[in-house]
From TrEMBL:
Role this protein plays: Acts on leucine, isoleucine and valine. Involved in the biosynthesis of p-aminobenzoate (PABA), a precursor of tetrahydrofolate. Converts 4-amino-4-deoxychorismate into 4-aminobenzoate (PABA) and pyruvate.
Organism: Spartinivicinus marinus
Gene: ilvE
Catalytic activity line of the entry: L-leucine + 2-oxoglutarate = 4-methyl-2-oxopentanoate + L-glutamate; 4-amino-4-deoxychorismate = 4-aminobenzoate + pyruvate + H(+); L-isoleucine + 2-oxoglutarate = (S)-3-methyl-2-oxopentanoate + L-glutamate; L-valine + 2-oxoglutarate = 3-methyl-2-oxobutanoate + L-glutamate
Family indicated by similarity: Belongs to the class-IV pyridoxal-phosphate-dependent aminotransferase family.
Protein name, entry field: Branched-chain-amino-acid aminotransferase
Length: 317
């Protein structure tokens, strides 16, 4: 069943990263063992993709501004003031890519981390009185999942509720929940996990949002279920509207998921990923009809081939 393709390429020490206001080699970045984010999970991050177009010899950042709007919002949740505007962040990212001279599909990972206690601050788990730092890594990354479709397990792990940790923010510590669910799924022979909330309603997969198709209507759980309102998720609403497909938010329980005609995941990393099986239920051998339509349009948009969506693209070179 294992359909995930793992990129095992190790980061290269010669790659240049942005850290603490400077561009440096990856092996020149130091984190101390008392780093607060390392100890307590008090960091926030983003995942951004840029796609190389060989026809125009251009590297196109995809929805980069939306990702930095979210990074700033996530940072505020942990009392981190980046002191940078969205434009500043986009400019730093473009500079970083140019320095590395990447001319292929890449993935950008900005992280804002709580760093160390300010002078005079007492030891403890806290947010105020702690310094912070911003790092941005960029690395080559193509498709890392099998786009033909994956099999998911309905996890026995519940999604951390938004009343416990705000789900609008991409907080590093929250991902322990995803890692546990992912491991359980892998141990049982599945590729990824979908988690429910305490009411038994669907939230999201470990690093992506969940959609189903039922009677020609595309449905996805609302953010109030306790999920990250993914940028790809939001894109799917616009894609459906462009394609004339009805797309609604609706709470979905286990029975709704298992009775669906199609199911797919969305995320910057996985893009539009068909789910061909859920627990013992089989949706099909490959992507369903609606999933294929949405996925094909997404592919065209990310390659900047659809003029009405060109505002989602920011060229690097
Ligand atoms: C938990 C979780 N849900 C959903 C998503 C999808 O979000 P996006 O489409 O903004 O990448 C991600 C990926 O960032 C995620 O980690």
């Amino acid at each position: 069943m294992s359909a995930l393709i793992h990129d095992t390429s190790a980061p290269k020490a010669s790659w240049i990263v942005y850290s603490d206001g400077d561009f440096k080699k990856l092996d020149e970045v130091n984190f101390y063992t008392n780093n607060q984010a390392l100890n307590y999970g008090t960091g926030v991050f983003e995942g951004i993709r840029a796609y190389w177009s060989s026809s125009s010899s251009q590297l196109n950042l995809f929805r980069v501004e939306e990702h930095y709007v979210r990074l700033i919002e996530s940072a505020k949740a942990l009392k981190i003031d980046l002191g940078l505007t969205i434009n500043d962040l986009v400019e730093i990212t473009i500079e970083l890519i140019k320095i590395n001279n990447f001319k292929q599909d890449i993935y950008i990972r900005p992280m804002a981390l709580k760093k160390s206690l300010m002078p005079g601050e007492k030891f403890g788990v806290k947010l105020s009185g702690v310094s912070s730092t911003l790092c941005i890594n960029a690395m080559p990354m193509g498709q890392y999942v099998n786009s033909l479709g994956i099999n998911c397990l309905l996890s026995s792990w519940q999604r951390v509720s938004k009343e416990a940790i705000p789900s609008y923010a991409k907080i590093t510590g929250l991902y322990v929940n995803s890692a546990l669910a992912y491991e359980e799924a892998r141990e049982e022979g599945f590729d990824d996990a979908i988690m429910l909330n305490s009411q038994g309603d669907c939230t999201e997969a470990t690093t992506s949002n969940v959609f189903i198709v039922s009677n020609d209507t595309v449905k996805t759980p609302p953010p109030s279920a306790g999920l990250l309102n993914g940028i790809t998720r939001q894109s799917v609403f616009e894609l459906c509207s462009y394609l004339g497909i009805s797309c609604i938010e609706s709470n979905l329980n286990k029975q709704d998921l298992l009775a669906a005609d199609e199911c797919f995941l969305t995320g910057t990393g996985v893009e539009i990923l068909p789910v061909i099986g859920l627990n013992q239920k089989k949706f099909g051998d490959s992507a369903g009809r609606m999933t294929t339509k949405i996925s094909e349009l997404y592919d065209d948009i990310k390659k900047n081939r659809v003029s009405s969506f060109s505002h989602w693209i920011t060229p690097v070179y």
